[in-house]
């Protein structure tokens, strides 16, 4: 499953390796809207001029190195989550990167599964999502209406979608009739068909199994 083009978070990738950079951009493009630059000076300009959801910064770069990029941006109050990527794996190198203001530090060579997981983690912390509810492999943050998928990263729900999922998540063993859901989530003017419509929307945005149909009775939280 890949994130829809309209919902993909924006990622600035700062990597000067002519083979690794394009490869990373291609793989990350499954989830993120990626902009790749090999130049540290250009990275600073891009960070200041555009809005980003997360950054990956190589440690060793031409013109301006990765540590300087992170230190400069943090010194100017820049709060976007940043991950430093480098071949320098000594403890003192990691300490310098984190002290410079990076949210995380990943040593080359790396596995893309780990990179994706670390990006999800720093975006959760950096984004101030609030407390979460775990639903199988998914994480649901009611305060920000965000769901973190093991495949797509961050997905934003509408108010009604979020309220519906929150109802199920707060009562994981209970089956709700359409009338129950109408009273808890929707208004008196809505119809039972509205419940079916929003269950469909929620499944389409997340995963079909996140809401289970109990035939003849209604819906309940699924196991995903």
TrEMBL record:
SUPFAM superfamilies: C-terminal effector domain of the bipartite response regulators (SSF46894), CheY-like (SSF52172). Residues 130-223 form the OmpR/PhoB-type domain. One of its GO terms (biological process) is regulation of DNA-templated transcription. Coiled coil: none annotated. It holds the Pfam family Response_reg. The modification 4-aspartylphosphate is found at residue 58. PROSITE patterns: OMPR_PHOB, RESPONSE_REGULATORY. Keywords: DNA-binding, Phosphoprotein, Transcription, Transcription regulation, Two-component regulatory system. Residues 10-123 form the Response regulatory domain. This is Response regulator transcription factor. It comes from Microbacterium laevaniformans.
């Amino acid at each position: 499953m890949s994130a829809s083009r309209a919902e993909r978070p924006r990622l600035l990738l700062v990597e000067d390796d002519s083979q690794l950079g394009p490869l990373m951009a291609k793989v990350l493009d499954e989830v993120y809207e990626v902009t790749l630059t090999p130049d540290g000076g250009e990275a600073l300009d891009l960070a200041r001029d555009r809005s980003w959801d997360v950054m990956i910064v190589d440690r060793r770069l031409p013109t301006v190195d990765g540590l300087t990029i992170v230190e400069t941006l943090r010194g100017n109050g820049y709060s976007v989550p940043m991950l430093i990527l480098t071949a320098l794996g000594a403890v003192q190198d990691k300490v310098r990167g984190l002290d410079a203001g990076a949210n995380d530090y990943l040593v080359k060579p790396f596995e893309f599964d780990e990179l994706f997981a670390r990006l999800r983690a720093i975006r959760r912390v950096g984004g101030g999502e609030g407390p979460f509810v775990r639903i199988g492999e998914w994480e649901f943050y009611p305060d920000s209406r965000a769901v973190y998928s093991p495949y797509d990263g961050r997905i934003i729900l509408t108010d009604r979608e979020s309220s519906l999922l929150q109802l199920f998540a707060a009562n994981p063993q209970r089956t709700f009739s359409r009338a129950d859901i109408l009273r808890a989530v929707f208004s008196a003017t809505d119809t039972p068909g509205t419940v079916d419509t929003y269950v469909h929307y929620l499944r389409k945005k997340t995963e079909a199994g996140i809401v289970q149909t109990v035939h003849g009775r209604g819906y309940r939280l699924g196991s995903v």
